[in-house]
Amino acid sequence: MDEPQSTSRKQQGGTFAPSQRGRFFHWLDLRTGVDSLLHAALDEPIPGGASLAYVFGSGLLFLFVSQIITGVFLALYYIPSADHAHTTIAYITKEVTAGSFIRSIHAYGSSAIVIVLLLHITQTFLFGSYKGKRELLWFAGCVLFALMLGMSFTGYLLPWDQKAFFATTVGTNILSEIPWVGNALKSLLRGGTEMGTLTLSRFFVLHVFMIPAFIFAGVAAHVYLFRKAGAAGPIQGNAATLKQSTEPFYPRQVLFDIVFALLIICGLGLLAHFSPMELGPKANPADTQYVPRPEWYYIPVFQWLKYWEGALAIVGILVIPGFVALLFVALPFLDRRPERRPWKRPAAVTIYAIIFIGLGVLGGLSHRNDLRDPAVASQLAKQHEDVVSFMKAPFEPELAGSSLAAANVALANPLAAKGKDIFEQQGCNACHGDGGVGTAAAPKLIGVGAKYDGAKLEALLKQPNSKMTAGGMPATTDLKDEDMKALVAYVQSLK
Ligand code: HEC
Predict the structure, then answer these.
(1) Closest approach atom of ligand 1 to CA 448
(2) CA-based radius of gyration for the chain
(3) How many domains does the chain have?
(4) What is the DSSP letter of 247?
(5) Which residue from 418, 417, 407, 490 is spatially nearest to 454, judged by alpha carbons?
(6) Which residues line ligand 1 (CB under 6 A)?
(7) What mean pLDDT is predicted for residues 280-308?
């Protein structure tokens, strides 16, 4: 859409007759001013016109919303305690309909955010879009960057598998290198000296309540400041031609943004479907062999820290990263020339490239070291095997009756929940134990659903075989059809 049309749209805004506009919309507009809100949102002028180069910011917003939605679904089952966290994630991964898919979208989504964020920052940096009264806009972006790193760090621990536990142990240990306050910070984050339920609930609260609240505020500030400053537009071109090619945000830029969001969904969906996110065995703090590795985007930092041991640690952990972060945040104040073309800003672009290449090299070095050291390589291979075999094993609820996860299994299927009552009324638990865990009088029924299908099970209950009869198992003949169905569903749900 070109400029004249957009102004005509604006003029028409108030002049349409109610019947033309839709009476409901008119009614709503009189009360909410939704019409002018839409104009403000959609008619934002983009100097130089819509472009595919501008999709990253809205892509990030889209991913953030996707993380919220998938995160809410995960939270429906998750219990943040060292006893139950891992079982509930295993339950989501192995039992809940589409649970593994949603968990994978959430986990891969966090990587996608890092990638799109890097693209967004690179685009802003190369195009010099932080220039021209945009210092606060840039600053809000830096705060969001830090919050995002906080989200991925806190989220990584929540599954409470070996990988999560040991990577976070290392991550929080780094804090203690900070002079004076380091140890206090570490205990504050861990909720004590050791990693346990208190650590998990602190990370959960940060991941689910506190950081997201700050992100909401940060996104609002970032978008507001962006709208206030206006889109930066192309890096060159004279004012007159730019003005001519200016077009509103709607429809073409909106279309580009939607196309990008669809690409993201497809990418995440394919990954989640064909390569579902794995879960390893439950954290075992007593395991002294485990070789922890953080999420891929933390690996360069992880490698970097290895070079700074002993007295120098503070330089590597605090001084240099602090200096780089400060330079990064202060960029719009340091670089005040209006020049935006990257080839006219060789110093800035070179420093940026060095940092990125440096991170890439560090990541590569870490990978090479892992391959070269046979002890590490074989331990990593063993850890991978453990993950694969854990993923293949059927879901095992925590036993001992008190288990919330086991309760979830029954609750997830109302028929099975009813069957549980019948199981007890019929006195099956007298021989097979509560929850079918087995007693001296009769074998456990857990997993029996894999042996017999529903019809076979029903037949067996109505007419127990000779061995069962020998063991004193009575025939179940006095049940209504639906009660029998419920009983069978319950026995089958015992896993
Ligand atoms: C008096 C004790 C007793 C009671 C009560 C009882 N059972 Fe059994 N049940 C047994 C014994 C003993 C066996 C194992 C026979 C064998 O060795 O194969 C058995 C076997 C089974 C099996 C087959 C297990 C397998 O692995 O093949 C199922 C299913 C079963 N019982 C379900 C039930 C249900 C449901 C009820 C309640 C309606 C019930 N039982 C009540 C004693 C009992």
Answers:
(1) 26
(2) 29
(3) 3
(4) E
(5) 490
(6) 426-428, 430-432, 441-443, 445, 448, 451, 457, 460-461, 467-468, 471-474, 476, 487, 491
(7) 90
